[in-house]
Write a structure and sequence with these properties.
275 residues; alpha/beta; six-stranded mixed sheet; binds (3R,4S,5R)-3,4,5-trihydroxycyclohex-1-ENE-1-carboxylic acid
């Protein structure tokens, strides 16, 4: 039986074992996905453990996504650019790092919302880890214009500079709120609205244009107040379940070569979250 798992701190809340173990069973693959609670000062030892024990692959979550990088044999170019690894493949002892969060998000956006991204104007709220993955993935796959707004404008400015594509601008929150109607897709990557900060909102939706796609990477609560308000104002809303499921599906594919049934994964996650 091959061993897979998640390295993080904390990890108990994770829905990944549910998704992956079901998918292993579905394909008749003899493997099991476990949760490994790893303290920040033990990341190096944990990666040495992955090698020594021959663990076939792991996901990496908060707060280790950057910290694991120096311990790997190879990091793919996209993950390097993002500066974070969430998926490690053990290729006969060679540990290779990838990032499936950003690509997973973009795939979920395209498939769930049935949008074609080329030519669209996109507003990204936030400039942290989640935003980095999504920003670079959008830049590399879509001929869209992607602007960034963030409470700390300097952080948004830095990300736009790193993007180096000439298509992006950054705005203070108040300015982005004023320009809201210019955007086709608005994405919240901040934790405003996430449990337990359920009353916080990342940005005022006063000038939202009906028909806009409003997407929140938060899935706990299942639908944030902000997303509910967006829908009430006529937006097409997407919560964070799609990103979670698709990043998992892309990791599963890297480990096994199989593309799992994403709708099945999604239903499992939704049933669990709704309990
Ligand atoms: O990037 C993912 C990670 O692969 C798994 C995960 C989880 O199980 O909570 C969350 C995200 O960080």
């Amino acid at each position: 039986e091959n061993v897979y798992g998640l390295l993080g701190f904390p990890v108990e809340h994770s829905l990944s074992p549910l998704m992956h173990n079901d998918a292993f069973a579905y394909f008749g693959i003899s493997a099991r996905y476990h949760l490994f609670s790893v303290k920040p000062e033990q990341v190096g030892e944990a990666i040495a453990g992955v090698r020594a024990l021959g663990i076939a692959g792991v996901n990496v979550t908060i707060p280790h996504k950057m910290a694991v990088i120096p311990f790997l044999d190879e990091v793919d170019e996209h993950a390097r650019r993002i500066g974070a690894v969430n998926t490690i493949v053990n290729d006969n002892g060679r540990l290779v790092g990838y990032n499936t969060d950003g690509p997973g998000y973009v795939k979920a956006l395209e498939e769930e919302m049935d949008v074609h991204l080329d030519g669209k104007r996109i507003l990204l709220i936030g400039a942290g880890g989640g935003a980095r993955g999504i920003y670079f993935s959008l830049l590399s796959t879509a001929a869209a214009r992607i602007d960034i707004t963030n409470r700390t404008t300097e952080k948004a400015a830095r990300l736009v500079r790193e993007g180096e594509d000439g298509r992006s601008a950054f705005f203070p929150l108040a300015e982005a709120e004023k320009r809201l109607a210019e955007y086709d897709i608005i994405i919240n990557t901040t934790s405003a609205g996430m449990h337990p900060r359920v009353n916080e909102q990342p940005l005022s939706l006063e000038r939202l244009r009906p028909g806009t796609v409003v997407s929140d990477i938060i899935y706990n609560p299942f639908e944030t107040k902000w997303l509910k308000e967006a829908k009430a104002r006529g937006a097409r809303g997407q919560n964070g379940v799609g990103m979670l499921v698709y990043q998992g599906a892309l990791a599963f594919e890297k480990w096994t070569g199989q593309w799992p049934d994403v709708n099945r994964m999604k239903q499992l996650v939704i049933d669990q979250l709704r309990r």
